[in-house]
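Complex record, two chains
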Amino acid sequence: MSQDTILLAHGSGGKLTHDLIRAVFVKHFRNPWLDRQDDAAVWALTASTETRLALTTDCYVVQPIFFPGGDIGRLAVCGTVNDLAMVGAQPLYLTAGFILEEGLPLVDLERVVVSMAQTAREAGVEIIAGDTKVVDRGSADSLFINTAGIGVLPAGISISGANAQPGDVVILSGPIGAHGLAILSQREGLRFSFPLNSDCAPLNGLVDAMLKADARIHCLRDPTRGGLATTLNELATQSQVGIEIEEACIPVPEGVKAACELLGLDPLYVANEGKLVAIVPPPAEDSVLAAMHGHQYGQQAAVIGRVTSAHPRRVVLRTTLGAHRVLEMLTGAQLPRIC
Amino acid sequence: MKYIDEFRDPGAVQRLLTSIHNRSSRPIRLMEFCGGHTHAILKFGLRQLLPPSIRLLSGPGCPVCVTASTDLDRAIAMAHLPDLILTTFGDMMRVPGSQGSLQDAKAQGADVRMVYSTLDALSIARANPDRQVIFLAIGFETTAPTVAAAVLQAQAEGLDNFSIFSLHKLTPPAMKAILEAGEVQLSGIIGPGHVTTVIGSNAWHFLPRDYGIPCAIAGFEPLDILQAVYALVDMVERGAPAVSNAYRRSVRPEGNLVAQQMMQQVFQVSAAEWRGLGSVTDSGLSLRSEYAAFDATRRFPVAVHSSLEPRGCLCGEVLRGVVEPPECPLFDGACTPEHPVGPCMVSSEGACAAYAQYGEA
């Protein structure tokens, strides 16, 4: 029965989401751009020009719409800007579609729109087209936003989740888990004695600095829903390589660690909205890492592992105690423990 | 992080492992009662680090997994009643019953809501005075006191739209049932940490006394578990079974008397149906007659057909420690975390889910 209907778990960003995309969307829309399974589609304007464009779209349905460190509007701009940045594109223009539920306070809508405008300014993009629909009370959960974005790719850049090579270095731009726990704590009214703020941020500036340091970056991906573990699995599968990660090298803030312990969650599967994973060839490691450390969103960047030709399509984690285990994709949603 | 990092210190873990390797001279089989232990053991890769002569078997300590199919089917039938909200902990949503799961019932229109605590269910009842709210109360001695507290709170507030479907289970009778069945020969038991915090380590004295089996209570960090393993190896080697407490920062011999008193005030001990073990005498908690107004089984009687276990599923055998998850013919084939056939693959404390999620490299 579960396989015949859409369940909430199909939206978790984990394995069920990937299965759904493959079994329904890619199956019927099939084309070379979708087949690449990158965060944005890239194509050349004409056969003779070096200018390439990148296009992406995303929907935002987060609850609550305001949370510590961000809101649905900031998320909607950052998410699309970041999808463009993850193929190495410079984001230029965004569109914004709003589905508003009858009864939504106008002040809330305006607060979200102001936040979008501020975030767009921070990212250096313009929101140049949009649409608004209002639906009956109960037909939407206060406010849904869709954003699409278009960007340009400088010549000489080739970034894809399929480009990882054995021997490459895996870099994480900073501590993980803050966004998912900030949302969870706000939604469920959980209070902790330490601050848990979303890391929601536009990453195009960071990517720009990294590419200026060394344009040979192979893969970029932001570990959003499904967390770091799911993202690494995506990259391993796309590139048909193995990835080996050191648990001790993965930065996890103390507050996130403590909240995860309390709730029985694994920070490796918790969503982020302002982090990226970069896979770079060894000669680029030092310069890319230095560039990241010099940017406000990459100050705590760290090498967390390497790409290997052993165990293709599998991510293996070396635990802090020296044992090895396979790191799978998220299946369903993470749930707090009972016992 | 204070109180966590100390218990994951690689140096201390290595020293303890060396002690275990040095002390262990014969093959032994230890059962970790608690699903939380199974997950910690696989998550930290402890099986790889222990001597191969020490075999660890999972036990019946996953509250979601031991819920019988018939009880789950009754909960699903209740969820479909009109003007009713059924609340439960998250993992219960995905467990397949005879005709789908609570998650499926939700997708079909039933109002099923995941809560993080019983008090959340009370809040939902307060916010929906024109609808009945049932809390599907699963769990061992760990969660029963909080559910008892919620019933007392509902009574104090005069909430007449709140009730619970109590599927609470008691752990010592389940352990006895496994030992009495004699299907697995065990050298020792890694006792459940959170449960024993409530019932006290004295509750496990029957293991050395009646069965000659040592028990070591463990917390959920690598050092906790390895300390318990060392204590068990040592007791086996000395031939001196006893109850050892390797979780002293949480567990006292007498347990948490306030929690016990609250449980006894609201619940009475009764027989309970366990997946894998069948009906076990004195292993469940039902509401005392004084609290009948909060008993969902009395207020919303539903009839269900006799439920069948999924064909080929060995969850029952896994829960009794008779087979390890990879020995089930469905494991990682027909039964996966995204399309689970049995509850042990669903629950975040289930043994099959632990093996699937933390597969050894």
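Note: The radius of gyration of chain A is 19 Å.
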